[in-house]
């Protein structure tokens, strides 16, 4: 960490769960007898946009009450130390930005973004709660959440940037991700194929643990600050 000038970081749901953000795989993933997997789809939105937006309105309210944890702040500090750092996140909650990170590749989108289905304009809407369900664009078109739903492809340009960052980095840190959700889970093997060392931080063993150069077991909010503090010492 101390010697690497180009560092890439991949974060997943675990780092945000430490801030109280519900995960899809936890018991909180059940909402009004609906599974998240049944609501976060284009088909569900086409059938009942009001229902899907009511769920997203609840999610936005829940996330708005959460705060970045020490893991988020540690990565923001690391960005200051390493101008070549690229932070790739699977999370849509915006907590990295709220902690101060500037260069964030959001491969699954952002829950605070809204996409107009009529004019295709993407804007940020931080209002909680939303005054209208479902919300509409200034052009009159129906808005959808600016996130990647099940069955949809990742944003091409953002994913290309993520792959490029991992291909060019000297160190990859993977924090709070199960390493089972593709294509994000392909980034660590991509780094390893180039001989790049991978540091994993997770509370549990994952499919990446045995292949990582270093696998640290524990919360990101505890281990990331320690790792980055030790790397900043001469």
UniProtKB/TrEMBL annotation:
Domain Deacetylase sirtuin-type: 1-234
First-listed, main subcellular location of the protein, grouped into a coarse class: cytoplasm
Pfam families the record matches: SIR2
SUPFAM superfamilies: DHS-like NAD/FAD-binding domain
UniProt-annotated location(s): Cytoplasm
Cofactor remark: Binds 1 zinc ion per subunit.
GO cellular component annotations of the record: cytoplasm
Chain residues that bind NAD(+): 12-31, 90-93, 176-178, 202-204, 220
Positions bound to substrate: 56, 59
Reported cofactor(s): Zn(2+)
Binding site for Zn(2+): 116, 119, 137, 139
UniProt keyword annotation of Membrane present: no
Catalytic activity, reaction form: N(6)-acetyl-L-lysyl-[protein] + NAD(+) + H2O = 2''-O-acetyl-ADP-D-ribose + nicotinamide + L-lysyl-[protein]; N(6)-succinyl-L-lysyl-[protein] + NAD(+) + H2O = 2''-O-succinyl-ADP-D-ribose + nicotinamide + L-lysyl-[protein]
Active site: 108 (proton acceptor)
Gene3D superfamilies (alphabetical): SIR2/SIRT2 'Small Domain (3.30.1600.10), TPP-binding domain (3.40.50.1220)
Domain notes: 2 residues (Tyr-56 and Arg-59) present in a large hydrophobic pocket are probably involved in substrate specificity. They are important for desuccinylation activity, but dispensable for deacetylation activity.
Summary of the function given for this chain in its UniProt record: NAD-dependent lysine deacetylase and desuccinylase that specifically removes acetyl and succinyl groups on target proteins. Modulates the activities of several proteins which are inactive in their acylated form.
Protein known as: NAD-dependent protein deacylase
Organism (species): Paludibaculum fermentans
């Amino acid at each position: 960490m101390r010697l690497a000038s180009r560092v890439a970081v991949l974060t997943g749901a675990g780092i945000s769960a430490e801030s109280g953000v519900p995960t899809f795989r936890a018991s909180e993933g059940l909402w009004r007898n609906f599974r998240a997997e049944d609501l976060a789809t284009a088909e569900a939105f086409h059938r009942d946009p009001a229902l899907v937006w009511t769920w997203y309105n609840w999610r936005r309210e829940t996330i708005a009450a959460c705060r970045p944890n020490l893991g988020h702040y540690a990565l923001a500090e690391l960005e200051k130390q390493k101008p070549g750092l690229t932070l790739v996140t699977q999370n849509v909650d915006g907590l990295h930005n709220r902690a101060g990170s500037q260069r964030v590749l959001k491969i699954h989108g952002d829950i605070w973004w809204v996409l107009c289905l009529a004019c295709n304009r993407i804007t940020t809407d931080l209002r909680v709660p939303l005054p209208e369900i479902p919300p509409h664009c200034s052009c009159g078109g129906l808005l959808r959440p600016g996130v990647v739903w099940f069955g949809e492809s990742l944003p091409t340009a953002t994913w290309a940037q993520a792959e490029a960052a991992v291909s060019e980095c000297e160190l990859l840190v993977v924090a709070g991700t199960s390493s089972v959700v593709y294509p994000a889970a392909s980034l660590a093997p991509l780094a390893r194929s180039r001989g790049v060392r991978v540091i994993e931080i997770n509370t549990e063993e994952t499919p990446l643990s045995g292949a990582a150069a270093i696998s640290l077991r524990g919360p990101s909010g505890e281990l990331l600050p320690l790792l980055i503090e030790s790397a900043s010492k001469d």
